C-alpha cells in the first residue's frame, strides 16, 4: 500500500526534527544573510524616518502663513538633502529638496510645480519672493517614525531574509544580523550513466542534472550544501564517499540526500548500499517522485530521492522544503494559488499528480506531459500543478491548486 504524500512529508519532518533542534545561530554581514532566517526578534534601534523630511522638491512653509487665497512669502535659505536647517521664520518659505530635513517651525511642503514662479530662485537672490497656494498642515511631510518607531518590532524571529528585509535592516543602520545556522545537506548523485556537465558525452551516458537542480533548490531554501560529486553504481563506492564526508568534522553534515538507485532495477546502488542500515524504501502515492528512501545512515538522517530530474525537484518541493519549514523554521513555503485550467486533462487514479505548468493571469497551461525526464518543459514552467489522487479528469476552466515556483 503506497504511503500518502502528507504521511511521507510528516515522516521526513520527524526524521529532521532532532538535527534542526541542534542548530545554533550565526552572526552574518547583511549580504551573507540573504536567504537565511532571522534568529531573534529584532527591534528598531532608531525611528524611520529618523527625522521629519520633505516628500517633494518644493517650499517648506508654516501652513498658518498662507490663507485660502494663497500668499506671497519671502524665500529663506535653501535646504538641500543632508543639511541640518535653521528654524523657519514666520512669513518665509524655504526651498527644500526631497528627503531634506524639515526646518523647525515648518509643517507643510508646497511642491515647486504649484509655486509662482515655478522654479527655485538662485541662492544669491536674497530678495526673492514666491507666491504659494494654501496648504494643509502635514502635506508632503514624512514624519519622524511614520514608518517605524524606535523600539518597535522591526522583524520577528523566523523571518526569511530577502532583499526587502535586508534593505530594512540596512535602513536601520545594522551591518550584521543574527541568523539561524542552516542545516547542512550532503548531496550525492548516483549512476554509472551520469557524467559531470562540461565533460565529453559518450555513448549511453547523460549529464548530471539532479546535482545542480537540487543544490540550487536547497540553497534557495536557505540550506548549506556539500556535494560529493557523482557516485557510480558500486555500493562500496557510495558507502566510501558517504563515510569520507561524514568523517569531516570541519563540515558536519545534518542530512544526506541522494538521487537515483531507489526503484526496482538490477543495480539500485542506493538500495544496495543501505542494506543493513535502517533506511526504508517505499512508494508514495505520487507521480512523479513515487519511489522514495528514508531512514538513517550511521546516525545521520538519510533521504533517498528517485533519479529522474523532475522527480527530484518534485520530491524536494513536496517533502523536503515543507518539512524543513515545519522543523527548522525555514519559512520558504511556495505561494499557493487557485487558478483555472487552460485545457482538459486526465490524471492516473490513486496517485497525487504533480504536473508542471505556466500560470498567466489566473490560468494555468501545462508544460510538457507527465514524464519525469522532461527537464526542458520544467525549465519553462513557473508552477507545480497539484492534482489530488481521487481526481482523474478535469475540464478546461476547472479550478486547480498551483504552487508557484
Ligand atoms: N520496474 C519498475 N521500474 C521503475 C519503477 C517501478 O516502480 N518499477 N519506477 C520508475 C520511477 S517512477 C522512477 S522515478 C524511477 C526511479 O528510479 P531510480 O531512483 O532507481 O533512479 P535511476 O534508475 O538511477 O534513474 C532514473 C532515471 O533518472 C536518470 N538519472 C539518474 N540520475 C540522474 C542525474 N543525476 N541527472 C539526470 N538524470 C539522472 C537515469 O538515467 C534514469 O533515466 O524508476 C522508474 N522505474
Ligand atoms: O515517480 Mo517517477 O518519479 O514517476 O518518474
TrEMBL record:
Entries under InterPro entries matching the protein: MoaB/Mog-like_dom_sf (IPR036425), MoaB/Mog_dom (IPR001453), MoeA-like (IPR038987), MoeA_C_domain_IV (IPR005111), MoeA_C_domain_IV_sf (IPR036688), MoeA_linker/N (IPR005110), MoeA_linker/N_sf (IPR036135)
Role summary: Catalyzes the insertion of molybdate into adenylated molybdopterin with the concomitant release of AMP.
GO MF, one annotated term: molybdopterin molybdotransferase activity
Annotated EC: 2.10.1.1
Lineage: Bacteria, Bacillati, Actinomycetota, Actinomycetes, Micrococcales
UniProt name for this protein: Molybdopterin molybdenumtransferase
Species this protein is from: Paenarthrobacter histidinolovorans
Alphabetic keyword roster: Magnesium, Metal-binding, Molybdenum, Molybdenum cofactor biosynthesis, Transferase
Names of required cofactors: Mg(2+)
Top enzyme category: transferase
Span of domain MoaB/Mog: 186-326
Keyword Membrane tagged: no
SMART domains for this protein: MoCF_biosynth (SM00852)
Pfam families tied to this protein: MoCF_biosynth, MoeA_C, MoeA_N
Residue stretches spanning the membrane: none
Catalytic reaction equation(s): adenylyl-molybdopterin + molybdate = Mo-molybdopterin + AMP + H(+)
Pathway annotation: Cofactor biosynthesis; molybdopterin biosynthesis
Family recorded in the similarity comment: Belongs to the MoeA family.
Amino acid at each position: 500500500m503506497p504511503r500518502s504524500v502528507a504521511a511521507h512529508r510528516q515522516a521526513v519532518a520527524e526524521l529532521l526534527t532532532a538535527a534542526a533542534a541542534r542548530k545554533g545561530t550565526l552572526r552574518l554581514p547583511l549580504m551573507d544573510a540573504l536567504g537565511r532566517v532571522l534568529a531573534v526578534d529584532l527591534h528598531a534601534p532608531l525611528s524611520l524616518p529618523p527625522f521629519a523630511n520633505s516628500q517633494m522638491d518644493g517650499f517648506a512653509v508654516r501652513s498658518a502663513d498662507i490663507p485660502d487665497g494663497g500668499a506671497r512669502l519671502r524665500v529663506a535659505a535653501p535646504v538641500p538633502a543632508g543639511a541640518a536647517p535653521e528654524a523657519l521664520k514666520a512669513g518665509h518659505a524655504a526651498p527644500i529638496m526631497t528627503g531634506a530635513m524639515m526646518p523647525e517651525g515648518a509643517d507643510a511642503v508646497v511642491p515647486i510645480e504649484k509655486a509662482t514662479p515655478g522654479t527655485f530662485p538662485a541662492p544669491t537672490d536674497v530678495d526673492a519672493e514666491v507666491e504659494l497656494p494654501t496648504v494643509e498642515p502635514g502635506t508632503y511631510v514624512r514624519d519622524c517614525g511614520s514608518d517605524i518607531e524606535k523600539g518597535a518590532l522591526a522583524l520577528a524571529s523566523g523571518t526569511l531574509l530577502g532583499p526587502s528585509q535586508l534593505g530594512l535592516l540596512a535602513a536601520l543602520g545594522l551591518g550584521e544580523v543574527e541568523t539561524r545556522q542552516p542545516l547542512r545537506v550532503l548531496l550525492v548523485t548516483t549512476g554509472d550513466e551520469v557524467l559531470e556537465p562540461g565533460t565529453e558525452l559518450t555513448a549511453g551516458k547523460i549529464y548530471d542534472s539532479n546535482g545542480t537542480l537540487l543544490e540550487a533548490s536547497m540553497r534557495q531554501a536557505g540550506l548549506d550544501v556539500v556535494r560529493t560529486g557523482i557516485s557510480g553504481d558500486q555500493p562500496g563506492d557510495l558507502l566510501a564517499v558517504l563515510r569520507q564526508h561524514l568523517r569531516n568534522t570541519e563540515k558536519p553534515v545534518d542530512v544526506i540526500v541522494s538521487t537515483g538507485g531507489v526503484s526496482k532495477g538490477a543495480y539500485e546502488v542506493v538500495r544496495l548500499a543501505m542494506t543493513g542500515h535502517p533506511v526504508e524504501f517505499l512508494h508514495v502515492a505520487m507521480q512523479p517522485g513515487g519511489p522514495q528512501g528514508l531512514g538513517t545512515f550511521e546516525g545521520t538522517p538519510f533521504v533517498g530521492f528517485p533519479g529522474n530530474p523532475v522527480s527530484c525537484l518534485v520530491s524536494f518541493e513536496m517533502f523536503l522544503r515543507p518539512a524543513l519549514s515545519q522543523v527548522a523554521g525555514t519559512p520558504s513555503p511556495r505561494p499557493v494559488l487557485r487558478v483555472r485550467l487552460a485545457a482538459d486533462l486526465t490524471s492516473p487514479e490513486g496517485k497525487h499528480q504533480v504536473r508542471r505548468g505556466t500560470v498567466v493571469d489566473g490560468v494555468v497551461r501545462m508544460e510538457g506531459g507527465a514524464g519525469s525526464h522532461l527537464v526542458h518543459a520544467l525549465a519553462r514552467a513557473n508552477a507545480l500543478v497539484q492534482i489530488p489522487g481521487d481526481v482523474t479528469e478535469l475540464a478546461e476552466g476547472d479550478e486547480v491548486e498551483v504552487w508557484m515556483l
